[in-house]
Structure formats: structure tokens, C-alpha cells
């Protein structure tokens, strides 16, 4: 244990995802020795992300305005919606250049072990979006792991009763247990073009 | 570097760093084990799919300084395949995992009986031949018994007076006679207590004859007993889908 502010910083850093106690200590001492200007820049970036970034009213993606760039873009196909867990998955799919429709970001996967059920995700918003707009195809692009699969299962059941709606899943080729963000563009692109009706 | 090998069920996976995971397993011989699986979040990992929740696996570990490391995994039963395709089974199976995790608080303490119960419950949920809700409640009652918290279902939990009794008290530990009955006791029907007894000892023919109302009431009592003993709320239990909508 260190004294006061240093230990506070180590504790705060240690709460970040992927940062263990040793890394937290390393980052804290790095910051302690860094140039004041560098620390100020980091401070400002942190501040801005909380104040300047909002979530898109339509799709839930991170955005600078109340409606995100993709939802505003008239060239995007409004009839196809790709449902993903996190904003970083939108980026991953955009990089493939395979998909011309729009997105819906759930904000996670159904994970009862972490207390996350349908009410904790943007599922109700997805259903009302489909009910009120000209959407004819929904592509489910969850992480190829247990929580992702279960989330897709649940959504398939909820979407079954919309008349004229095609629901597709990313084709296999993505091994189970991984994160979508680690798939290479080729694999992910192929998985998208080979998607199937469920 | 010392190696050991065991069979276990994956209870929980947590992200670690860029691409690793910490895997919590309930094992046959080594109790609860937390170990690192390296690189499994990359979609090219061969290990990844094998150490997902619900997987029953044969694992080789080496003893690390803080956490053990998983070096090899072979699948014994891929229970997940039969579970994630049905939301009711999935939420029930999650409650099985969380209960097992909470009841095996001490790492390394042997929990063979609990390990066998978890395997049995996941097998039944994956097979899908029984009502997932009954499978879950049977597991929870047997897990309570494993922990020494079996509810009294016939005799009085306080004085031992042979029943059956009308009143049921979570705090007292089950059925209570009119003299011992604390205020605020529930009064489940005889059918509910019969169902709970059948689930606890695996008399499925009796359990499956129970009405929906009795099943619902039994689920409520079992959940209340579990919460009472575990003190801290289970996250997954309120999210269990009890009946197919
Ligand atoms: Zn948007
Ligand atoms: Zn009594």
C-alpha cells in the first residue's frame, strides 16, 4: 500500500477493464513521472469523453450529436439493420465495407451472471424501431460466444412475429469463444456475405 | 513448474488484459479453481470455444505464482450447445453456475458432490426433456442440502414434531408446527411441499405431476431459502425465465 493520492490513483486505475494490480501500479508511477502537459492532455480527453460524447437516439452508437453519422447518412439502406453488442463492433463491421445498412447497438449481451437481462439492454428500443420504420431485414451480429449466442436466441424469438421481417445471423466461420473485434476483416467479411436466415 | 490435471465445469469467464480470460471451474478433485486461459478471445484461438460457460472439460493446468494457467483442454460434454439455443434453459443454467460459484467459496476446498450436481443439472437442461424450471429447483434444493441447509419439509424445523405442518418459515428453515411458527410464516399447500420433497430426492414422476401453481410457489420458496442462506442476492435468479411466454 502506498500513501494517499498515489494509492487512490492505483485503485482507480485498477478498476479499469483489463488492468490488473501490477499494471495499475506501473501506469500510476508512469503518470507520476510524466510531463505536466501530457497529464493535462489525458485529463482533458477524459473530461471530453464524458461531456462531449452522447449516444445516438436512434441506434445507441456513440455519437457527437443526438443522431449519429450513420443514421443521418441518406445513402445508407434504411431497410437493413445490423444488431451488435457494443459500439466497437460497429467499427469492426464498417471496416469490412460489406454492409450498407444501419446499426442497432444493444449495449452488451444478455448475461444473467452479471445481472444483465433484457431490461438492461436496448432491446425495447430495437423492437419499437422495427415496428415503426421501414425495416425489412435484421442481421444479428453478436460476439461468437455463449452470451452472444444466448442473446441472438432471445432476439430471434422476439423478432419472429414481425410480419415480412427477415432475420439473419452472421454465418459461422467465426470460432466460438472469441470477441468479434479480434476477427480479421476477411473472416468477418465472409461471415457477413454468407449470412443465413434463421 | 508443476502440472496437474482434472475434470471440471466452467462456471464463469472474465476478461483479462487484451485477449486472455480468467476461467473459474468447479473441479472433481481440486474444488473451485481460477485459472488463466491465454489468448482465448482472439477468434483464431483453438482453446476459446472449449472454455466457455457450461462446458464440461478435461483440463491440464500448471501452477502459477498467483493464478494457475490452463495449458490443454479437451471437451467432455459441450453442454452449452443444448443450452444457449433456448432462453429459458440459458437463464436457468446461469443460476446453476452462480449458485455453484457462491457455494464453493473457498478455492481448493473439495466439493465433489456439488460438482456432480452441477454436471447433472446442466446435462438435464441441455437434453431439454424436463421442464427447465423444475431442473433448476431440484438443483437448488440439492445444493442447499450439500451446504447443510436442507429445508424441513415434513417435521417441524424447530422442535422436530412430525408433520405435515401448514406453516413454512424461511428463517426457521422450513416447515414449522403451530407452536413454533414465527410471525409472517408462509402457508404453502401440501402439494407444494410434496413437490419440493420430490425434487430434493429426484422422484421425477411425482414432481412432473405438480400443477403450474404449485411449481410457481415451490420456486418462490426455494429462491427465498437460497437468498436467506447466501445472504447476498444472486444476480441471475431474478432473471431466470420461469415459464415460456
Ligand atoms: Zn445512430
Ligand atoms: Zn415445532
Automatic annotation (TrEMBL), chain A:
- Please state the residue ranges covered by C4-type zinc fingers: 56-71
Highest taxon, organism lineage: Bacteria
Q: Which InterPro entries match?
A: DNA_Rcmb_RecR, Rcmb_RecR, Rcmb_RecR_Znf, TOPRIM_dom, TOPRIM_RecR
Give the molecular function GO annotations.
Answer: DNA binding; zinc ion binding
Q: Does the keyword S-adenosyl-L-methionine apply?
A: no
Q: Which UniProt keywords apply?
A: DNA damage, DNA recombination, DNA repair, Metal-binding, Zinc, Zinc-finger
Keyword check for DNA damage: yes
Q: Name one GO biological process term.
A: DNA repair
Q: Where is the Toprim domain positioned along the sequence?
A: 79-175
Which Pfam family, giving just one, matches this sequence? Answer: RecR_C
Family the entry assigns: Belongs to the RecR family.
Q: State the function annotated in the UniProt record.
A: May play a role in DNA repair. It seems to be involved in an RecBC-independent recombinational process of DNA repair. It may act with RecF and RecO.
Q: What is this protein called?
A: Recombination protein RecR
Q: Which gene encodes it?
A: recR
TrEMBL record, chain B:
The highest taxon in the source lineage is Bacteria
- Keyword DNA repair found: yes
- Would you kindly state one Gene Ontology biological process term found in this protein's UniProt entry? DNA recombination
A family per Pfam: RecO_C
| Keywords of this entry | DNA damage, DNA recombination, DNA repair
| All residue ranges annotated as the DNA replication/recombination mediator RecO N-terminal domain in the record | 1-79
Q: Which GO terms describe its cellular component?
A: bacterial nucleoid
Q: What does this protein do?
A: Involved in DNA repair and RecF pathway recombination.
User: What does the similarity note say?
Assistant: Belongs to the RecO family.
HAMAP family the record matches: RecO (MF_00201)
| Protein name (database record) | DNA repair protein RecO
Source organism per entry reads Actinokineospora spheciospongiae
Name of the coding gene: recO
Amino acid at each position: 500500500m502506498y500513501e494517499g493520492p498515489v494509492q487512490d490513483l492505483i485503485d482507480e486505475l485498477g478498476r479499469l477493464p483489463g488492468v490488473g494490480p501490477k499494471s495499475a501500479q506501473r501506469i500510476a508511477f508512469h503518470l507520476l513521472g510524466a510531463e505536466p502537459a501530457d497529464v493535462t492532455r489525458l485529463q482533458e480527453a477524459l473530461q471530453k469523453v464524458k461531456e462531449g460524447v452522447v449516444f445516438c437516439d436512434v441506434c445507441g452508437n456513440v455519437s457527437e450529436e443526438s443522431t449519429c453519422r450513420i443514421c443521418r447518412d441518406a445513402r445508407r439502406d434504411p431497410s437493413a439493420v445490423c444488431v451488435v453488442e457494443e459500439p466497437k463492433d460497429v467499427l469492426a463491421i464498417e471496416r469490412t465495407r460489406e454492409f450498407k445498412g444501419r446499426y442497432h447497438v444493444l449495449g452488451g449481451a444478455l448475461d444473467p451472471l452479471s445481472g444483465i437481462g433484457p431490461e438492461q439492454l436496448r432491446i425495447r428500443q430495437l423492437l419499437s424501431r422495427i415496428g415503426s420504420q421501414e425495416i425489412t431485414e435484421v442481421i444479428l451480429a453478436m460476439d461468437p460466444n455463449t452470451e452472444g449466442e444466448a442473446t441472438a436466441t432471445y432476439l430471434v424469438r422476439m423478432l419472429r412475429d414481425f410480419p415480412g421481417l427477415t432475420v439473419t445471423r452472421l454465418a459461422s466461420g467465426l470460432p466460438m469463444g472469441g470477441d468479434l473485434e479480434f476477427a480479421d476483416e476477411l473472416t468477418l467479411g465472409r461471415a457477413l456475405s454468407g449470412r443465413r436466415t434463421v | 513448474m508443476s502440472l496437474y490435471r482434472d475434470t471440471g465445469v466452467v462456471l464463469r469467464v472474465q476478461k483479462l488484459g487484451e485477449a486472455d480470460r480468467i476461467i473459474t471451474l468447479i473441479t472433481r478433485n481440486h474444488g473451485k479453481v481460477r485459472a488463466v486461459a491465454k489468448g482465448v478471445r482472439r477468434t483464431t484461438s483453438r482453446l476459446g470455444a472449449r472454455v466457455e460457460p457450461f462446458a464440461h472439460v478435461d483440463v491440464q493446468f500448471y501452477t502459477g505464482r498467483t493464478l494457475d494457467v490452463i495449458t490443454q483442454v479437451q471437451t467432455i460434454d459441450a453442454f452449452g450447445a443444448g443450452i444457449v439455443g433456448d432462453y429459458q434453459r440459458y437463464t436457468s443454467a446461469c443460476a446453476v453456475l452462480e449458485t455453484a460459484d457462491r457455494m464453493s467459496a473457498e478455492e481448493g476446498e473439495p466439493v465433489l458432490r456439488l460438482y456432480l450436481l452441477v454436471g447433472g443439472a446442466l446435462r438435464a437442461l441441455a437434453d431439454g426433456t424436463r421442464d427447465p424450471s423444475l431442473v433448476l429447483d431440484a438443483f437448488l434444493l440439492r445444493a442447499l442440502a450439500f451446504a447443510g441447509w436442507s429445508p424441513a419439509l415434513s417435521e417441524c424445523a424447530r422442535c422436530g414434531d412430525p408433520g405435515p405442518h401448514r406453516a413454512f418459515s424461511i428463517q426457521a428453515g422450513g416447515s414449522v408446527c403451530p407452536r413454533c411458527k414465527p410471525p409472517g410464516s408462509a402457508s404453502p399447500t401440501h402439494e407444494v411441499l410434496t413437490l419440493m420433497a420430490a425434487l430434493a430426492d429426484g422422484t421425477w414422476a411425482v414432481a412432473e405431476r405438480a400443477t403450474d401453481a404449485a411449481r410457481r410457489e415451490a420456486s418462490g420458496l426455494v429462491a427465498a431459502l437460497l437468498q436467506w442462506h447466501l445472504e447476498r442476492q444472486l444476480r441471475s435468479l431474478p432473471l431466470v425465465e420461469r415459464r415460456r411466454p
